[in-house]
Structure formats: structure tokens, C-alpha cells
Amino acid sequence: QVTLVESGGGSVQAGGSLRLSCADPGRTFSGYGTAWFCQAAGKEREFVAAITWSGGRTYYADSVKGRFTISRDSATNTVYLQMNSLKPEDTAVYYCGVGDELLRFGVRSPAAFGSWGQGTQVTVFS
User: Fold this and answer.
1) What whole-number distance in Å separates Cα of residue 52 and Cα of residue 57?
2) Over its length of 126 residues, how does the chain's per-residue pLDDT go in tens digits?
3) Which of 22, 71, 21, 29 is nearest to 49 (CA)?
4) Partners of 39 in the β-ladder
């Protein structure tokens, strides 16, 4: 059982930065892919960024390329999402997902990730 603990959300003015963290203290992420998705009110969950644990390959949604960076820390089994140049349209609940079905469903599909955190709210005001 994967238990993901997310942190780092909050409220920030447009142009500001936040760093989200996703940890699974009781388990290694080795062999899995880890991703961040976001869900705004009334909308479906959308892909933001992903990283493969073994090779560290990264993927980004077009809307966040050049602004967000996903990274991993093997020593602490933590995945980070550094969010810079935030925009009001980035406002959403951000979820961390872990899974091993990336080849089957594609890295941008929520179905590839079988375990999720509780979500952390990010609010960007203008």
C-alpha cells in the first residue's frame, strides 16, 4: 500500500513561486513513475508533469513547460514540483500519483497511476 503525503500548497500572487512535495515515507518509488495532476473546480483532473524513477525522464504539459520543474530525491523518496511564474489559471488542487502502468496508458493519463495523495490546494491571485 502506497501512502503519499503531499505538502507545499498555498496562496501566492501571480508571478510568484511554490514548491510542492510528495513523499511516501514507508516505501521506495523505485520502479514506478510519479506524476503531478491538477484539478480545478468543475473540471477533470489534468496532467501537469511526470518523472520516471529509474531514469529520471521528465514530461510536462505544454502549459507549464519552462515554468514548472519536477524532480526526485532518492534518499528521501520524495518528488518535488517547483512552480515558478505562477498564473491565476494555475489555481487548482494538485495531486501526486504513483504508478507502474505508464507504458499501458501513457504518462499523461491518470489511469497510469494507481495511488494518489490527498491533494494540496494552490491558489494564485492577480
Assistant:
1) 5
2) 667 899 999 999 999 999 999 998 777 677 789 999 999 999 999 999 999 988 789 999 999 999 999 999 888 889 999 999 999 999 999 999 999 888 899 999 999 999 999 999 999 999
3) 71
4) 93
Q: How far is CA 74 from the centre of its chain?
A: 16
